[in-house]
Amino acid sequence: MAADSNSNLRITIQRNPSQHQVLAQGVKNKRWGCSPGKYQLKFDAEDSCYLLKGKVKAYPKGSSEFVEFGAGDLVTIPKGLGCS
Is the pTM of this model over 0.70? Predict the structure, then answer.
């Protein structure tokens, strides 16, 4: 896990969580998708998502390290984290 250089913000990943763990994290059935590419994101609220397909390589702002996650992972991104 990589940290934001301005704080102790970390992306957390649960690999292959149970359905109970996904629901307990507050993930709902709302679907969202995007085309492959590079994006600049800033999270104004904590966000959790369960990836159905694909892969993500996220670089937290101010860090040279990346976090990689993909299909089957439950990911939590803390409020205030910026990444690309």
Answer: yes
